[in-house]
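Supplementary Methods, section 5.1.

A reviewer requested that the exact input to the structure prediction be made available. We therefore reproduce it here, unchanged from the version used in the analyses.
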Amino acid sequence: MTHSFDRYAGIIFLLLGVGFITESFKISTSAYGSQVGPNIFPMGLGILLSILSARLIYESVKKKQVKKEKEKLDYKRFLIILIAAIAYCLLLEVVGYVISTFLFLLIGFQAMEKGSWLKTIIISALFSYGVYYLYSELLEGSLPGFPLGGF
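The structure derived from this sequence is encoded token-by-token as follows.
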């Protein structure tokens, strides 16, 4: 990517981060007597996004643009991941979070780098079930479960 694109993207993300911070002040500051309220997460994301954007702007201004040959776009990988993302959205409620996320990650990892099926399967399974367990069991959140009430 070009440094001018990085600079413009950095400015847009910086504005978005400032917007997150500003809007997080409109959310209540505490939840049922807790010190950590629902405004902390969006505020933290806004601060992190602003810091990273400022760094991107600084880096793009600091470095001179170097002419490089144009990279060939990889439409095949893009279409594979796009179709997988659409299928993920459609299958999320039908087959549940764990199975649909596992399949999406499996397809995505293989589209990005073919080979090492065992590593891909292990990472996809651990991530999808780990996030499901952390969110639904420990944080008592709600995610689409397994089909037919499994596990």
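The chain has two domains: 3-62, 75-149. These observations are discussed further in the main text.
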